UniProtKB/TrEMBL annotation, chain A:
InterPro entries: ACP-like_sf (IPR036736), PP-bd_ACP (IPR009081). This is Acyl carrier protein. Gene3D superfamilies: ACP-like. It comes from the Bacteria. It comes from Micromonospora echinaurantiaca. Pfam families: PP-binding. Residues 5-80 form the Carrier domain.
């Protein structure tokens, strides 16, 4: 579980930087587009940083399933093979 | 205001070098797309581009020392030389200060940029060769043309990305119309390079094999290169020397989305069309053909189709994308579009959108002139150009009356 | 009839931003600052005229700025100063008639070269940074400035190195003539990076280090009034080209004579002149010879900012025009006086402009 918390915090920081907000302003379920003015370029940038950080590849089509922090974590966990524990 | 006509076409393109070859490529729906050879594509998931493999500057150029100029400058200069020849213009018989040059570009000498990157990685900054510093400035594209032709009128490079050569044509048109110049060489040039290709690939914007604009199953753009220069002159200047114009420049419109650097904006583009129509003194119903920006990305096609529906109030004339054949030649793209538009008017045919298989239900009413050129009488035609930075530029051409 | 009016301006420079600082720097140029170790690559000179304290986040905030390259950040900040100085309020009623027109050499060279570098160091090679891709196009600074201030009028970027700024003025004059805009933010701004520093050293035969910064002017068509009289009128601006083997000084002088003729001004009435810096001593001598030949005298006050602001091939001319206008604000005795600007680049492009300036609150005559 501690592992999951650390990774969520890492992702929060990463996404916050791309969306130009403070990590604590980024809620788990706030919609990137609606609440943080994200656009497609920001979304691709976020994906690129996740891929680089965890050395994984996530197809661009997955962006449709990565509209908030919780969803980003779920998709990333799936591709990185992070266990659910 | 003087009337302004196009009297010479100088295409250095991947479907043909010179006006006749380019025209037959357009009519035949040829493709200029092939596997990339100008850089190592190992590790790239997309490896096709529209390189001008047959380009040899030496036989075309008379004055430039080809060893001291970058590829984009050589494209521009060679295209200008071809345009002058096509126009039957003896440049030495026009006062040199009455001949100006305006060239549009997206990335200027992008192969020089690429080489600088490679040298920095391999040897560090202090070892950067002087030739690279010498060849990097983008203003060299216009300078190469002025130097090649030995003309002394203004020499300007417009760096407004992928609509730059429509910008260039607009400025050249104003200078001739207002009597600032007798003859203008105008167009654009860009080179295929590793880093811009990587950027478009990274954005997920590049097609696997073919560029299929307005097709339901489109998969993106193809990066490409070339030089496209035209001769513009006043109608009276053309008449006096017995030249036969392809078409008349009726006017142009410019605006800026001011919303997003990359994503185009339909309302703003529709506004730019209305502005261009107003400046050119034409009504939407007058327009017989539209040469689309038509990059073949989902974002462009949807936005462009929506803007056309809006500006033409649902009665959109036939629209084709020559990028289906050439790929996206960046700063040269709008000038190739002007050439296609001028040929449509002069020769009575509509250039096709090739690689087209299935209508896109999102733009069901659009006629993309699929796969085969079509004979048609074209009196007025529109050439669209959009760009990063939201720099929209739209040009209207008409038959010479 | 002039070509256009200037109703305000903004500067970001190593010598400061206000008129007092700009004029003061002509007599007491600030020393370049220590730059060794401050950048991620070796530099050609240990000191340079870099703006080490420039902080885009402090100027504009975080939102919308974290992917700006330095050239874009400096440009947006300079545009903001220019708008404030002109007192121009952007609204829904006028934003479609207000545009941005900038001069450049090759865009943000760092942005495009870093992109190329990434394709040689990343694995796989296309793992470049998507959010930075827009920075690689030369019209990035103009596009981002339009976005920042929501200006939907004409928007253009002209590449021409030392001649870029005069090309900008010429392009703007044409836009006004063809009634395409009511106001234009026009200028040239350059960044200091290891890339520009090394490019600046190419071919130099002196110790002048590179600089950064630039100036943006708020332009209006000739005639008509804004809040007050204009800060200046650009009476004429002309461009040309000098092919290899022709006399460069003569071409430059001819260009300036053309500008003077166009506005009917005698060279004897010109008081200040600027050449926008030079690539080497010979080019500098050529430029001044051309100015004196066209004016017919050598009594002009030479306005040169490269000693105070470093070599800035893209924006030197814009910074010198701002300095001329700063001198007008500092000294009412200069009201109505004439200045000329000339420029040339290595390739042979040449340009000239004739400017009449005033201080703020001065009577126009």
């Amino acid at each position: 579980m501690a592992d999951g918390d650390t990774r969520l915090a890492e992702l929060r920081e990463l996404v916050a930087e791309v969306l130009e907000v403070e990590p604590e302003e980024l809620t788990d379920t706030g919609d990137f587009q609606e609440e943080y003015e994200a656009d497609s370029l920001r979304a691709i940038e976020m994906l690129a940083r996740i891929e680089k950080k965890y050395k994984i590849e996530i197809p661009q089509q997955e962006l449709a399933n990565m509209q908030n922090l919780k969803a980003v974590y779920a998709v990333t966990a799936g591709y990185a093979g992070w266990s659910e524990s | 205001m003087k009337r302004v006509v196009i009297t010479g076409l100088g295409p250095v393109s991947n479907i043909g070098i010179g006006a006749a070859a380019f025209e037959s490529g357009l009519r035949g729906g040829h493709t200029g797309i092939s596997a990339i050879t100008s850089f190592d594509t190992a590790g790239f998931p997309r490896t096709m581009a529209g390189e001008v493999r047959a380009f040899e500057p030496e036989p075309i150029l008379r004055r430039l020392d080809t060893a001291t100029w970058g590829r984009s400058s050589l494209f521009a200069a060679a295209a200008a030389r071809l345009a002058v020849r096509d126009a039957g213009l003896r440049v030495d018989r026009v006062p040199p200060h009455r001949v100006g040059v305006v060239v549009g570009t997206t990335s200027g000498e992008s192969k020089v940029t690429e080489e600088m990157g490679r040298r920095i990685v391999d040897h560090g900054f202090p070892a950067l060769p002087g030739e690279l510093a010498e060849q990097l400035p983008a203003g060299r594209l216009a300078a190469a043309v002025s130097e090649e032709l030995g003309v002394t009128g203004e020499s300007v490079t417009l760096a407004t990305a992928c609509s730059a050569s429509n910008y260039a044509l607009g400025y050249a048109y104003d200078l001739v119309a207002n009597g600032d110049a007798d003859v203008m060489l105008t167009g654009g040039a860009d080179s295929v390079c590793r880093w811009a290709h990587a950027g478009f690939v990274r954005l997920g914007a590049v097609a696997d094999k073919a560029c299929a604009p307005f097709d339901r199953d489109r998969s993106g753009m193809i990066t490409a290169e070339g030089g496209a220069m035209l001769v513009l002159e006043s109608a009276e200047h053309a008449r006096a020397r017995g030249a036969t114009p392809y078409a008349e420049v009726l006017g142009y419109g410019l605006n800026c989305d001011a919303r997003h650097m990359v994503a185009p904006d339909a309302a703003s583009i529709a506004e730019c069309m209305r502005l261009a129509h107003r400046n050119a003194g034409v009504r939407p119903d007058d327009v017989d053909y539209i040469c689309a920006h038509g990059t073949g990305t989902a974002a462009n096609d949807a936005t462009e189709a929506a803007a056309l529906e809006d500006a033409f109030d649902g009665r959109v004339p036939p629209v084709s994308s020559i990028k289906s054949m050439l790929g996206h030649t960046m700063g040269a793209a709008s000038a190739f579009g002007v050439m296609a538009t001028a040929l449509a008017i002069a020769r009575g045919f509509l250039p096709p959108t090739i690689n087209w298989s299935n209508p896109d239900p999102a733009m069901a009413r659009l006629d993309p002139i699929p796969n085969h050129a079509r004979p048609a009488r074209v009196r007025v035609a529109q050439n669209n150009g959009f760009a990063f930075g939201g720099n929209n530029a739209i040009v209207l051409l008409g038959a010479v009356s | 009839m002039s070509a256009l009016q200037i109703i305000g301006w903004g500067v970001t420079s190593p010598a400061g931003t206000d008129d007092q600082a700009l004029v003061g720097a002509l007599d007491r140029p600030p020393a370049p600052v220590e730059v060794t170790g401050r950048y991620d690559a070796p530099l050609p000179t240990p000191r340079a005229h870099a703006l080490l304290d420039f902080d885009v986040r402090a100027e504009l905030g975080r939102k919308g700025t974290s992917f700006f390259d330095r050239r874009t950040a400096l440009t947006v900040v300079t545009c903001r100063r220019a708008l404030a100085d002109a007192g121009l309020q952007v609204s829904d009623a006028n934003r479609h008639r207000i545009g941005v027109v900038l001069g450049t050499t090759a865009g943000s060279v760092r942005s495009s070269v870093d992109y190329a570098v990434d394709t040689f160091t990343q694995d796989p090679p296309y793992m470049v940074n998507p959010a930075l891709f827009p920075n690689t196009v030369m019209n990035c600074a103009a596009g981002q400035s339009a976005i920042w201030f929501n200006l939907t009028g004409v928007n253009a970027t002209l590449a021409g190195g030392r001649v870029a700024f005069l090309s900008v003025l010429r392009w703007c004059a044409n836009s006004f003539r063809s009634r395409q805009a009511d106001y234009l933010l026009a200028g040239a701004v350059e960044e200091f990076t290891p890339h520009t520093a090394w490019l600046s050293r190419h071919g130099r035969d002196d110790e002048l280090p590179a600089g950064e910064g630039g100036a943006v002017f708020v332009l209006r068509p000739p005639g008509g009034t804004h809040l007050r009289g204009p800060d200046a009128e650009v009476l004429a601006v002309t461009l040309g080209f000098c092919p290899r083997g022709r006399d460069r000084a003569e071409a430059l002088a001819g260009c300036l004579r053309g500008a003077l003729d166009r506005c009917g001004v005698g060279g004897d009435r010109v008081r200040m002149a600027a050449i926008g810096g030079a690539d080497d001593a010979a080019a500098r001598a050529t430029a001044w010879r051309a100015v004196e030949s066209a004016l017919g005298h050598s009594r002009v006050r030479r306005i040169a900012v490269d000693g105070a602001m470093g070599d800035n091939p893209t924006a030197g001319g814009a910074l010198e025009l701002a300095t001329v206008l700063a001198a007008h604000r500092q000294d009412p005795r200069l009201d109505g006086q004439l200045s000329v600007l000339v420029a040339q680049n290595r390739e042979g492009a040449v340009g000239a402009a004739v400017v009449r300036g005033w201080g703020r609150g001065s009577a126009r005559g």
